UniProtKB/TrEMBL annotation:
PROSITE patterns: LRR. The lineage of its organism: Eukaryota, Viridiplantae, Streptophyta, Embryophyta, Tracheophyta. GO terms for cellular component: plasma membrane. This is Leucine-rich repeat-containing N-terminal plant-type domain-containing protein. The keyword Glycoprotein applies. Belongs to the RLP family. SMART domains: LRR_TYP.
Length: 561
């Protein structure tokens, strides 16, 4: 065994390094930057049964020395810069492998028609340029990833792998209907057919069998988004009680949402039905999905009002909610000979904060409620304030009316709040200033009025004027329209002045009377004080009289003289 994995080695490895290793059985150089440059005519002296070379430099041509390595049990040449057509001898050399990984290269060609005779249990051919149809699969296969290729044609009528657990085919050009053979894959846990050209109804999967005659399927993650699938909400899903992740977005499904979703799919944490043609009310039974953390019904024809029982979405009410349920549906592990590795890493595009954002594993932390672009009416229920774990709330482009709930400020974790293009009226609740996590707010094109609240996060939002545009009754910063000052009412002002004057006169009169009464009583009972007072008054009188008389006589003399 030669194991130099995870050492950040670089440089070049050539025939001289390997020519004397005749007994070598395991070559493990994973996660290094070694360039293995071997002559296409070189025949190695060893016969490896374990080849683990991910992230090494093998390309651009297909490494010819691999044709002599038989029978190999495990082969991993993923991310090795191979840009070549897969040779026929490769399928012969790998016919006995248990684990085969060639992902993340630029390998072209088609899958062999003899693929069903291979022994592989795990195959990962994702992120290449393989074309052609999907052939019948090896009977022992449990995990297959052909995503991000150029595969065409219909899905096989017989998959030929009864123990298949994960089937990942997104981002191809597969067409036709979903065959009934998928219903026979009882071990299937993950099925991702998104971003293809599939059409028809999923009910075709039942063929002539009644839904009541079917046994339950074990699927946990089903993604069919971005196809041309049609028909009503698939009744087949009643037989998928373990379903946690369901994405039917961007198709042509029609009809109403069945009430049985809340009972038959009680484990759902993620439900995306956006960009279809569903209509009718949101069934009250839907709020029985206590584990739901992500609900997207945008771009449909949903009408009616939001059920007040929406607060039953317990997964949206717990700020420290357990996301393990959703994580289990998005993280699948498989044996690669050394241990368990994650096999599912698809990206999710989510509309939040006014733009599309790309999520991968962190989707488990996105608590989302998006009902935008429908025909929902009535008021926004105050019960919505109980969903305190929400990070994205989008109710735009509907027909909501009346006031914004006063308790909207209870959504302490919301980062994006969009209530634009409705018929909301009244003042903007001041509690909005309590949303310290808010980074995007849109209240435009409603009938809101009054002064715009200020404080905390509201002052830091970008492009503030556009937040409130289309509400002619709003005033105050950041708008240029000033709020009018309250004008005094004439009758009330005169009344106030009159009352003030009366109060002043009463106070002055009372003081005068009280002072006079005190002096009178003092002189009445104090004889000595009375005599002194009268004497003082007489003396003051005499003094004034004498001075006045003298002054008058003097003035007359000057005038006459």
């Amino acid at each position: 065994m030669l194991d130099l994995s995870f050492n950040n080695l670089d440089g070049v490895m050539h025939e001289g390094h390997l020519s004397r290793l005749a007994m070598l059985e395991h070559l493990i150089l994973s996660d290094n930057s070694i360039a293995i440059t071997l002559s296409p005519t070189w025949v190695p002296p060893f016969s490896l049964n374990w080849i683990d070379l991910p992230s090494c430099q093998l390309g651009p041509k297909f490494p010819m020395w691999l044709r002599w390595q038989t029978p190999v049990m495990s082969l991993d040449i993923s991310n090795t810069s191979i840009n070549d057509m897969v040779p026929d001898w490769f399928w012969i050399a790998t016919s006995s492998v248990d684990y085969l990984n060639i992902r993340n290269n630029q390998i072209t060609g088609v899958l062999p028609s003899t693929m069903e005779f291979m022994r592989a249990e795990v195959m990962d051919f994702s992120s290449n340029q393989l074309g052609g149809p999907i052939p019948k699969l090896p009977i022992n296969l449990t995990d297959l990833d052909l995503s991000r290729n150029n595969l065409v044609g219909p899905l096989p009528l017989d998959f030929g792998a009864p123990g298949l657990r994960t089937l990942v085919l997104y981002n191809n050009m597969i067409s036709g209907a979903i065959p009934s053979s998928l219903c026979r894959l009882r071990e299937l846990r993950l099925l991702d057919l998104s971003r293809n050209n599939l059409n028809g109804s999923i009910t075709d999967c039942l063929v002539n069998k009644s839904i009541t005659d079917m046994t339950d399927l074990g699927i946990v993650n089903l993604s069919l988004r971005n196809n041309n699938l049609s028909g009503e909400f698939p009744s087949l899903l009643q037989k998928c009680p373990q379903l946690i992740f369901l994405d039917l977005g961007h198709n042509q499904f029609v009809g109403t949402l069945p009430a049985w979703i809340g009972e038959k799919l009680s484990s759902l944490s993620f439900l995306r039905l956006r960009s279809n043609m569903f209509y009718g009310h949101i069934p009250v039974e839907l709020t029985k999905l206590v584990n739901l953390r992500y609900l997207d019904l945008a771009y449909n024809n949903i009408s009616g009002s939001i059920p007040r029982s929406i607060s039953n979405f317990t997964g949206m009410t717990q700020t420290r909610g357990n996301s393990d349920n959703l994580q289990n549906a998005l993280t699948f592990e498989r044996a690669d000979g050394e241990g368990l590795v994650s096999v599912y890493d698809e990206n999710f595009t989510i509309l939040t904060k006014g733009q599309e954002r790309l999520y991968t594993g962190e989707i488990i932390y996105m608590v989302n409620l998006d009902l935008s672009c429908n025909s929902i009416t009535g008021e926004i229920p105050a019960e919505l304030g109980a969903l305190v774990a929400l990070k994205n709330l989008n109710l735009s482009w509907n027909n909501f009316s009346r006031k914004i709930p006063e308790n909207i400020g209870a959504l302490i974790q919301v980062e994006s709040l969009d209530l634009s293009h409705n018929d909301l009226s009244g003042e903007i609740p001041s509690s909005l200033s309590a949303l310290t996590s808010l980074s995007r707010l849109n209240l435009s094109y409603n009938n809101l009025g009054g002064k715009i609240p200020t404080g905390n996060q509201l002052q830091t939002l970008e492009d503030q004027a556009s937040i409130y545009i289309g509400n002619p009754g709003l005033c105050g910063p950041p708008l240029l329209r000033n709020c009018p000052q309250p004008e005094p009412i004439p009758g009330e002002n005169h009344g106030d002045a009159s009352d003030d004057l009366v109060s002043f006169l009463l106070a002055m009169s009372s003081g005068f009377v009280m002072g006079l009464w005190v002096v009178f009583c003092t002189f009445l009972f104090k004889r000595r004080w009375r005599a002194v007072w009268y004497s003082l008054c007489d003396s003051l009188y005499d003094w004034v009289y004498v001075h006045v008389a003298i002054t008058w006589t003097s003035l007359r003399g000057k005038i006459n003289g």
